[in-house]
Amino acid sequence: MGQVTFVIWRESIEALLLISIIYAWLKQHTDSRHGLKYLWGGVVIGCVTSVMLALLIYGVFNVLDDTGQSLFMIIMEIAACLLIVQMVYWMNSHGKSLKSDIESGLAAQTQKKSWWGVTFIVAIAIAREGSEVVVFLSSFIMTLNKNNAVDFFISVLSGIVVAAFTMYVFSLFKRYIPWRIFFNITGIILLFLAVSLLLKGMEEGLNLLIEFDYSVPDFLYLPAWDTTNIIDDSGLFGSLLSSFFAYRSQPIWLSIITFIIFWLSMAWLFLRGGKHAQQN
């Protein structure tokens, strides 16, 4: 459940950061007391929307047959991978202007005397973070049962608590640890989580093709090497590396090819994004 705690922690920090920016801006407003009601209303709406999405995914998964569940799982894993990449790229591109963008949107709504507009901005921001969490953790949500539900919810709660503590620590040391460095480091870890989800989806897809007797090149499912004697991915440390950094002690060639293509694509995407930002 380490992945669950990390994802909840990272996304909760983003959500708390957004809330703190909006809260600080509203406190400066002449009608701040009235505005804060709409802020917390937006937080509630965003959280409820995220929970409804989680229930929808859980419900859809449980009405499918075995093949349908396998396909749905693969689709959600690949979707989660793409969403993580999009989120990290967006934060990398807009992190500097995040505060000013939010404040300009709030100013436009309050000038129109539309406090419901503030609620809408907050709800969309929270629902976006919450929906990302739901999709990231869809493979856990779809397989929830009475045996693992307690561990799952403890991990979720732990992530939120640690995120709140992290925000407090950063407020004390924000002069020494810029948020940009924090998001860059956690962004890299998230990209590793993304490739881990992608590998899982590709491997499950290959197994499904083989199960239905589709013709696939033999070399794709042959092991490229074996490092079980060094770090076994079924052990505690190996499992941690597998969950967070896509480690495989016996990787098949499909996984190797996917891993290389993913990181070449990320290098192209982020280098291109950096050049584009410099030109602007």
From TrEMBL:
Q: Where in the cell is it found?
A: Membrane
Q: Does the keyword Membrane apply?
A: yes
Classify the protein's membrane topology as the record does: Multi-pass membrane protein
TM region(s), chain numbering: 6-26, 38-58, 70-90, 115-140, 152-170, 182-199, 252-271
- Chief location of this protein within or outside the cell: membrane
Q: Name one Pfam family in it.
A: FTR1
Q: What is the protein named?
A: FTR1 family iron permease
